[in-house]
Automatic annotation (TrEMBL):
UniProt keyword annotations, A-Z: Oxidoreductase
Cross-referenced Pfam families: Epimerase
Organism expressing this protein natively: Lacticaseibacillus mingshuiensis
Occurrences of domain NAD-dependent epimerase/dehydratase (ranges): 5-243
This protein's name: NAD-dependent epimerase/dehydratase family protein
Family, as annotated: Belongs to the NAD(P)-dependent epimerase/dehydratase family. Dihydroflavonol-4-reductase subfamily.
Transmembrane segments: none
Length: 336
């Protein structure tokens, strides 16, 4: 029985990591923002697995001191916690400093505690070219230019936080380090508050709107967790980055999949296409749509072959993820 620390335990990905590790018979500690959140999380996850081997520590990404206790007697770390708020992806002050300083606080504590291996959840935002570039096989050697004006504060923070992490971890040799770069994270939720990552599907059904001409390089949360666990237990993954995607799927194809394969939602999904001009016009009145406008006409794609080749990782088809996501939202009564 190994001892794992999963940071940010109440989050979508972290919750799945905790459940997966517990089902494997591992001992898990997670970090939360308060004692009450820890108790609530343990109770919530108990419906999916035995949580006897789950403990928690209160820690804050911006509080370096809180991480010393969290790291005590830990062998492996899945650093998943992120300061991102759904309401402020353009707020430099709210996103940038916590992302960078928080990452370094976790890593410095891990090194000081002699942790064997840390796997950090980064983002494909840290390996994404300008929208004008054409490349159908972007691998892990690609680094986003943080000065690209197309980036909002959140996406820029992902680049700078991962760069800061690699710069620091290269100053030591005792703790192995790996980063995993997921695309759009979909999949079934375990708690009703974990809907931010799957809002695309949720809003597609709730709002009953036509589909912009954009595609997502998606990853199922279960496959992301599987990849991170494989990496943290593979010494050869030290010093490596891994793209975490299954495949690209257009919004219109997501809608078609829901209409054909989730009968209870078929009447609530539109498969019509939204003209680009209408989306651009709407974005002038609703700036939050600019992120979607920026995805129009993208001609690049990432490859997942490194993870498949080196870690024997096999993600499920995108359509399976879409179906399971929608059924999960329906089961939690989050589509009304």
């Amino acid at each position: 029985m190994a001892t794992y620390l999963v940071t940010g335990g109440t989050g979508f990905v972290a919750s799945w990591a905790i459940v997966t590790l517990l089902k494997r018979g591992e001992k898990v500690r997670t970090t939360v923002r308060s004692e009450e959140k820890g108790k609530t999380l343990k109770q919530a996850l108990s419906q999916y697995t035995d949580t006897t081997a789950l403990s928690f520590k209160v820690a804050d990404l911006t509080d370096a001191i809180s991480w010393s206790a969290a790291m005590r007697d830990i062998e492996f770390v899945l650093h998943i916690a992120s300061p991102m708020s759904a309401d402020n992806p353009d707020d430099e002050a709210a996103v940038m400093k916590p992302a960078i300083d928080g990452t370094l606080n976790v890593l410095k504590a891990a090194v000081a505690a002699h942790v064997k291996h840390v796997v950090m959840t980064s983002s494909l935002a840290a390996a994404t070219p300008p929208s004008s570039e054409t490349n159908q096989a972007i691998d892990e050697s690609y680094w986003t230019d943080p000065t690209n004006p197309e980036l909002n504060a959140y996406r820029r923070s992902k680049v700078l936080a991962e760069q800061a992490a690699w710069d620091y971890m290269k100053t030591q040799t005792e703790t192995a380090f790996t980063t995993v770069l997921p695309g759009a994270i979909f999949g079934p939720i375990l708690q009703p508050q974990n809907t931010h990552s799957v809002q695309v599907i949720q809003q597609m059904i709730v709002r009953h709107v036509p589909n912009p001409k954009i595609s997502f390089e998606i990853i199922d949360v279960r496959d992301l967790v599987d990849l991170e666990i494989r990496a943290v237990n593979t010494p050869a993954a030290n010093g490596q980055r891994y793209n975490a995607i299954s495949e690209s799927i257009a919004m219109r194809d997501i809608a078609k999949t829901l209409k054909s394969d989730v009968p209870e939602l078929a009447s609530r999904v539109r498969t019509s296409q939204l003209p680009d001009a209408i989306l651009r016009l709407a974005a002038k009145k609703a700036p939050e749509l600019n992120a979607i406008v920026g995805m129009l006409g993208r001609k690049f794609a990432h490859t997942n072959q490194k993870a498949i080749r080196e870690l024997d990782w096999h993600p499920r088809p995108a359509k399976t993820t879409v179906i399971d996501t929608a059924k999960s939202l329906y089961a939690f009564n989050l589509l009304s």
